């Protein structure tokens, strides 16, 4: 990063815009690589001799353009290209991320049991009142949070699934331990909503940002529902691709 940058205050161009264009040029020149963190707002402000509000406006403009990513509590980063995420009969997070030369991981963030209400019973094709496992997960690529998911399974079919997922970080591996060697996607529904406070914390995005909501059902080889998931995806980090 250049040590000293002069602002042309008589150019008729807003100072925040001059800072934004300078940052854009620094990224374009490779001085900051995708995924790298920028200096703090205070450091940038000091280099330009401006206040932090001016720098914040420049960063916000570049974030809106998709060039930067502001992660709450972590700083501002050069945005990596979004993950191309195909939706098909065999949608597997770990495989999709690994195939794009990124490191996938999954973390158990919560679990519990609950009786199936009418909606969950319909998704999983079980009677209302069936005891279900609820598993909360955070999926990450190269250390960047991508997806917060809530999944439901029949407890009687997969009694050890919470432990197995905690150990493997993969539903595919956990289901294999339970004797289910394969499964396929039956249906995917995609919508959008504003992120809630807890998901914003987990995804490290600003409150009020939009997230993609991806609901899906997976079936076993006999066509019986195995898993219903409601995932919340950081909208600027993933490009969903629907395959025919």
UniProtKB/TrEMBL annotation:
Gene3D superfamilies: Chorismate lyase-like, Winged helix-like DNA-binding domain superfamily/Winged helix DNA-binding domain. InterPro entries: Bact_HTH_transcr_reg, Chorismate_lyase_/UTRA_dom_sf, CP_lyase_PhnF, Tscrpt_reg_HTH_GntR, UTRA, WH-like_DNA-bd_sf, WH_DNA-bd_sf. GO terms for biological process: negative regulation of DNA-templated transcription. GO terms for molecular function: DNA binding; DNA-binding transcription factor activity. NCBIfam families: C_P_lyase_phnF. It comes from the Bacteria. Residues 13-81 form the HTH gntR-type domain. Keywords: DNA-binding, Transcription, Transcription regulation. This is Phosphonates metabolism transcriptional regulator PhnF.
